[in-house]
Amino acid sequence: MIVPMKKISLVVLNKSREASLEGLRELGVVHLEKRNVSSAALSSLLDQKSRSETALGILQSYVVKEKGSDSSKHKTPDSRELVEKVLSLGEEKKSLLEQLSWNTRERSRIEKWGDFNPRLLAELAGKGVTLIPYELSHKAYEALGGDERLILLGKDKTAVYCVALEPLPGETAPWVLPEKSLSELAEAAGNIQSRLAEIETEFKGLAPQGEAISRHLKTLASDIEFETARAGMDLLEGAPAELTVSWITGYIPQDDLGLLKRAAAENGWAFVAGDPTPEDPVPTKLKNNKLASLIYPLTDFLEVVPGYYEVDISGWFLFFFVIFFGMIFGDAGYGALLLLIGIIGVLKTSKKGVPQALKLLLLLGFSNFAWGVLTCTWFGIDAAVLPAIFQTLSLPLVSNAVAAQSAGAKAIVDQNLQIFCFSLALLQLSIAHIKGIFRNIKSLKWFGELGSLAMLIGMYNVVLTLVVSNSFRTIPFLPASLYLIAGGFALSFVFAGYEGSIVKSIVNSLQNIISVILGITNVFSDIMSYIRLWAVGLAGASISATVNAMAGPLLGNFLIFLGIILLVFGHGLNLILNVLSVLVHAVRLNTLEFSGHLGLTWAGVVYKPFAKTDIK
Are residues 222 and 272 both part of a single domain? Predict the structure, then answer.
C-alpha cells in the first residue's frame, strides 16, 4: 500500500536554521521538497565532489584484489590531500603523455637527417657561414639544375635532403630546425617514460586508499544535501535581525507526524501540516507485508515507483512476475541451479540478515523449477530419454514427454500452452479493471471499467477463436463475444472519462474518437502480447537442445573435454539470454500491459527522508 503523506512547512529562527536542519536530519522522517538553489558553499561542495569522483575513477583502474589483503593496514592520508595528490599525478601523467607524443612525432620528423646538433648551425651563422636546410622533392631538386649553392646530404625514395648557402628562389620553405638533436630527444623520451613508470607505481600504491575517497564522497553527498536544504530555506524579511525566520517545506508520513510534533516542541520550531494537493510532487512510500516486499529489489533496480495518487501493485507484480519468470526460463535444471545459488547465499548471509534479493532469487528459482517439472524440461534434454520419474511428475496437458509421442500430441501441448498464456492475460488484465471498479465505486466511472472488462472478456474469446486452433471456430460463443465487445465499448465510450457529468464524458470521447476506437485493437494486442511467454520459453528450450546436440557427439570420445566446455558455455549463455528475456518481457507485461489497464504510469518520486548518512 501507499503510505498517506502530509505536507508540512517548518518555520525556524534564521539564526538557528543550521542547528534546526541538524535536528531535522537527526529526526530522519521528512522528505524535503526539491528546489533549484545555489550558493557559494554549495558550488564549493559540488566542485569537491567532482574532483573526488575523478580521483576515485583514476585509482579504481589500479585496484588489484589480492587474497588476504587488508586495506586497513595502509596508512590513509587526509582524504582531501589524497584527492589533490591523485589529481596532481593525473595531470602530470597527462602532460607527460602529451610531451611523449610530441617527442615521438619530432623524432620521426628529423631521424632522416641523422643525429646532429641544431645549435651548431646557429654558431656557424654567427661566424658568417649560413647553412639553410631544405627537404625537397626529387622533381624540385632536379629543377634547380645542380645549383652550386646547394650541398647534397642524402636522398631517399621520397625526398632529397640538402643545405643551401642562401635562401632558394621561389616559395620553397626551409626545413624547420629542431630544438634538440635526435639523441637529446631520445634521452628526453627515456626520462619521460621513466617518470611515467614512477607515476604508475605511485598510483598502484595509492589504489588501496581509494576507500578513503569513497567515504569522503559519502560525506560530501550528505553535506551537499544539507547545504541544498539550507540554501533552499526561504527568508522572511522585514523583521528585526534577531526575529528573522526561515522556513522550508517537505512531506512526512502521516504516522510519523507525532515525531515531528515532539521535535518541534523540543526545538522551538513552528510548523503547519496539511493534505497535499494533486499538483504537489508528493513522494511515494510503500508499505507491504514481507512477501509482497520481495519485489522491491527488482523495482529498485528498475527505478520504478507508482505515483502518490496511483495504486500500489507490489503484490500482484510479484505474483505474476514469478509465474512469468518460471515460464520464460522454463527449465527445471536451470531452476535447480538458481535454487542452489540462492540457498548458498542464504547460508552465507544468515547471521547478518538475508538480503531480500536472495529471498526473491529463491522464489524465482522455485517457480522455474516447478514449471520445468510440469513441462518435463531438464537442461533441454529430449523428454523421451529422461528418467521415467521425470515424465511421471510432469503435467500431461503441457508436458514435453507427451509432446514427444507424436506430431499431433505436440500440437495439442503447444495449443494448451497458448491457451494458458492468453488465460493469464485475461486474469491479470481483469484484475486491473476489477481494481478500477472498486477504486471508482462511488462514481459512475466504474461503469467505464466494467465496459473495459467486458471488452477484455469478449476479445479473449476472439483471440482463442482466431489464433489458437480452428477447432475453436465451432464453439458458438463468438457472437456472444462480439456482443460483449460492443456493449463494453458503449459503456467505456460513455463513462470512461466521467468526472461528474455524462455529457462532458461523451464529448470528451467524441473529441478523442480515434484513440477510443483504437482502444479496441489495443485490447486485442495486449492479450496477444502474452503469447511471448510461450514463444520466448520455446526459444530458450531450442537453444538448450541445440547446445546438447552440438556437444553430444564430443562426449563419447577423446574430445569429451571440449564437449564439457561447449555445454558449460552454451547453457551459461542461454541463462544470460533468459535473464535478459525476463527483464524485457516479464517486466514489460507488468509495467506496460497490466499497468496500462490500471492507469498506472510509474511517475512517482521515491520517498527519501532528510536523514544522516551511514558512513563506513
Answer: no
